[in-house]
Amino acid sequence: MDQPTIEFRGVTKSYLRGEQEVPVLRDFSLSVSPGTFLAIMGPSGSGKTTILNLIAGLDRPDLGSIHAAGVTVSTQREADLARWRARHIGFVFQFYNLIPVLTAAENVELPLLLSKLSTRDRITHVQAALGLVGLGDRMHHYPRQLSGGQEQRVCIARAIVSDPTIILADEPTGNLDRNSAETIMGLLTRLHRELKKTILMVTHDARAAGYAQDILHFDKGKEVTDDARHVDRA
Predict the structure, then answer these.
(1) Cα 91 from Cα 94, distance rounded (Å)
(2) In 3D, which of 196, 228, 170, 174 has the Cα closest to residue 30?
């Protein structure tokens, strides 16, 4: 049996709001098998994005442990985490987080700058990633020259350019019209089915969640239902 790609064990996480401690996760456990496409749904403040941040090591649990892509993320040093993230984690954000003064190709190349790849190899990886998302002809365009859907496709290319183990998507369709959202979800589905990527996606959009293999419903720091089902969109 395959080892989980992601595993939370008894994780508790709180934040301070003024002088008040606000619990976000309480004794939370989760096991995600390799190649799973999991959607996490729930109201604002329920802990959805916190789960993604903890997986990536951008935040630390108060209690419990988090294992992802072969390491215990919750105990890694910051310098080691940065190298690990560059190799194993791809991020897709709601608001793209593209650097406006860089071209699409330069934005996609950013995660590779921490690698040992030569300039020529980096260019080859960038071309392949942009080709996969259908933007091979937009390599030298700046974000302001692209539509919202195209910017999100650049963001996906940036997320996959290093061939990461895990893709973390935070509201990837939240800023898009319906047609663009369907294009983005089609791309994520291809990454899951064809490249066998493990994808965790936070979303408020039930239509987007319908593309996932499993849905985790979350509220007030706890799983409330686990609507696990296979979705066949062939």
Answers:
(1) 10
(2) 228
**Angle, CA of 188, 191 and 195, to the nearest 5°:** 170
- Of 197, 220, 179, nearest to 92 by C-alpha is 197
Cα–Cα separations (whole angstroms), residue 11 to 54, 64, 146, 216: 10, 4, 40, 16
Please give the torsion angle defined by the CA atoms of residues 39, 44, 50 and 52, in that order, rounded to the nearest 10 degrees.
Answer: 30
Q: What is the CATH number of domain 6-228?
A: 3.40.50.300
Give the span between the Cα atoms of 93 and 2, in whole angstroms. 29
- Per-residue pLDDT tens for 30-73? 999 999 999 999 877 778 889 999 999 999 999 999 999 999 99
- Looking at residue 47, the DSSP 8-state letter turns out to be S
- pLDDT, one tens digit per residue, over 92-106 is 988 878 999 999 999
Dihedral sign for Cα 117, 120, 123, 127, please.
Answer: negative
